[in-house]
Design a protein that fits this description.
By secondary structure, the chain is of the alpha+beta class. Helices cover 36% and strands 26% of the residues. Helix 2 runs antiparallel to helix 3. The longest helix has 24 residues.
């Protein structure tokens, strides 16, 4: 059966509209107000995850089904030093908060990404970061200010907690 140019165009348009609809319906980034509210309602759970990461100095990232650790000392690989029970506790707490991962960023930051998207070199994300020192650049609303490529903007949330927007 021969497909006409008109049919191909309709098919491409239908698939494009369908993908956009799925993206809008199921992958909506929370608003800044929703992010602030989530933090205030669940601050103690945010703190639990942060304290766990500070205690587990060899852990860099805990994701849904993987973990990244770092080298401690000369040639001592620490891949197996996080117990299965501890990883299960991380993952349960992350699920409760709706996060897929927690990351250590440098020595003084803990990051929880709430939402991310994009393609290849145009990715972006929003989330929370705890930082010993105020991260830079600080802006009034990280949510509403698009950072330059390969950068982040931060806005104060409470204490050492900030909202970030990365690109």
């Amino acid at each position: 059966m021969k497909v006409t140019q008109y049919s191909r165009t309709k098919l491409i348009l239908f698939v494009t509209v369908g993908l956009v609809a799925v993206r809008l319906l199921f992958f909506r980034a929370p608003s800044e107000e929703e992010m602030i509210s989530k933090f205030r309602q669940q601050k103690s759970q945010f703190e639990q995850i942060r304290l766990m990461l500070q205690q587990d100095k060899n852990v860099v990232t805990v994701g849904n089904d993987w973990v990244e650790t770092r080298w401690l000392g000369y040639g001592e690989l620490t891949r197996n030093t996080v117990s299965a029970e501890r990883l299960a506790l991380y993952r349960a707490r992350l699920r409760q908060l709706g996060f897929s991962r927690v990351d250590r960023v440098g020595i003084e930051q803990v990051q929880l990404e709430l939402f991310g998207g994009g393609f290849a070199d145009t990715t972006w994300g929003i989330g929370y970061v705890w930082s010993d020192a105020p991260p830079q650049p600080l802006v009034t609303s990280a949510y509403n200010s698009m950072p330059m490529r390969e950068h982040r903007n931060y806005s104060p949330l409470e204490g050492h907690w900030y909202i970030y927007h990365r690109r």
